Amino acid sequence: MRLTEQSWPMVNICLNLPLRTYRTIQNPMLLDLIIDTFMSDLQKIHLSIGDKAPDFSCLDQEGNMISLADFAGKKLVLFFYPRDNTPGCTAEACNLRDHYDDLREAGFELLGVSADSQKKHQNFIRKFDLPFSLLADVDKEVIQAYGVWGPKKFMGKSFEGILRTTFVIGEDGRILNILTKVKTKDHAAQILEETDV
Do residues 77 and 104 both lie within one domain? Predict the structure, then answer.
């Protein structure tokens, strides 16, 4: 792998270095070290049940800064979805809305994440009367931290996007379950049935 200005934004996710730093690096050995570090860090993104959930801080639809620490001592359903107001995402959000009380009775807090803006989230919540907050992860920092950005296919076309995934995080901050085959129209029941709490 060779660093280019085009690949630098991806590297920057792991190393948090500005593009101007790349432009000033002349030493090939140093570039190779950066690449190795990037690849090593990228491999750590793949999460498993029992892992400590990555910390995050991100603005919700109202501009409130929401952090994983806010849910310390609570069980959290953190669901990542591609985009507001699309058929599958709407079905998933509305199913969670319809069974929100059941999930809360089971001790779960809910938090959605996509790369949509705060305004789009506000409209989505208002349109479907959603009772939970949505993080506006426009820079994809939370999405990348949880490893849910990757290759997708739709109608024969390949592209990069958010992989619909739900993480159930326990009271101790560790991952209790990871749902990658999300049943959008029956997701609440899926969470309750497939999560050992």
Answer: yes
